[in-house]
Amino acid sequence: MSVQFIKDDNDEPQSFSQEFRFISSRREWYDFVAGAYFYDEKTDRYLGDVLLGANGNAEFVNRDFFVDARTQSIAAYLSATFHLGSKFDIGVGGRYTSEDKDISVRYVDNNNNANNFSTTPSTSFSEFTPRITLSYFHNDDVMLFASRTEGFTAGGFNTETNNIASVELGFAPETITAYEIGAKTLWHDGRFLANVTAFRQKYKNKQEGVLLPGSFFGIFNASDATMRGAEFEFAWDVTDSFSARVTYSKLDAVYDTFLIPGGADFSGNKLQTAPENSFSAAIDYAKELNAGSLTAGFSYTWQDEYFTGASNIPQFLIDSYALINARIGYAWSDSGGHRWALRLWAKNLADEDFVRIRGTSGAIAEYFGPARTYGISFTYSKE
Fold first, then answer.
1. How far is CA 347 from the centre of its chain?
2. Which one, 44, 152, 216, 319, has the greatest CB density within 10 A?
3. Which of 114, 218, 72 is nearest to 157 (CA)?
4. Virtual CA dihedral for 251, 257, 263, 264, nearest 10 degrees?
């Protein structure tokens, strides 16, 4: 059976943020950063859904959501680094976050007024997230490090459901504990860089978008998940004008437990949009000329296959793909202190057809990445 789905989505967001930060000078045995952050966001949203039969000869759904949402977040943080001689640094810090969420949802079912409802739930979240780092400076060119960090994402409400209980239920905060260990090194008088980092991240109550039985899509807590892997970075200044850079990452990301209420068990599946392997390479050229500077660059990125859905069904599998970008530019200044720049660029030079997101709700939906694009940019500034 063919259907037509019409969606009208109108958002009017307003936000304000302010941060105050104090950075101390480096003292003989310590330095620190302290700050406070405030964020306020208000969004008025209208969403209309109409589901029609073939040629518009039947109307299965005709509904409206009127949503007002308000988020206020206040945070204070302090991070101090203690210098234990010339070789060791210990960093300790923490951030306290308090967040309030208030929403108003008015649902109108234009086919059955008995389903209409209004609700105004609100909730508050707060969390202290500490951090500790250890650094060892073997010499000016070799630094070893390790860290433990905790993170926090507030919970909220699902506002696009035709069930008042589902709106008021909401979802819980997400927390993460991350461990890192690695090395940052320079070789051959600083012309060659080699960095390596290994990490492990443990999620609690991970927030995921899922489709519940009964066709309600919303954010829920996927219980626990673990990500572990390593990242490698190499850079080489071949000459004063020519440089090259290579990166590679290895990732193992799995849902430890993921039980959908009244639905499937995704425990043991791979996390969404988490490719196991990623690789990139770039070369850059920069040359100062008598009348200006010439720059050019070429980059290659490759990304392994990944799933866009926690169910890991074949329809959600995104194939691996590679992208090539290139650019060339010339910049110059005149005697009046005016700076000019002309640049030619191209993205996805090989015109690769690649899918970024794939989903299914009765029919396969694919969202492709941009095709080959190219252009010219011209900029002017006064020094």
1. 21
2. 152
3. 218
4. 50
Only one residue has tokens 């951090």, namely 131
Domain positions in the chain: 1-170, 173-383
Which class for 245: exposed (0-12), middle (13-18), buried (19 or more C-beta within 10 A)? middle
- Torsional sign, CA 321, 211, 120, 95: negative
> Is residue 372 classed as helix, strand or coil in its secondary structure?
coil
**How far apart (Å, rounded) are the C-alpha atoms in residues 276 and 271?**
10
Phi, psi dihedral angles at 316 (to 5 degrees): -95, 5
* Tens place of pLDDT per residue across the chain (383 aa): 566 778 888 999 999 999 999 999 999 999 999 999 999 999 999 999 887 776 656 677 889 999 999 999 999 999 999 999 989 999 999 999 999 999 999 999 998 999 999 999 999 999 999 999 999 999 999 999 999 999 999 999 998 888 898 899 889 999 999 999 999 999 999 999 999 999 999 999 999 877 765 556 788 887 899 999 999 999 999 999 999 999 999 999 999 999 877 778 899 999 989 999 999 999 999 999 888 899 999 999 999 999 988 888 888 899 999 999 999 999 998 877 788 999 999 999 999 999 888 766 555 678 889 999 999 999 998 87
SS3 351: coil
Alpha-carbon span 363 to 162, nearest angstrom: 22
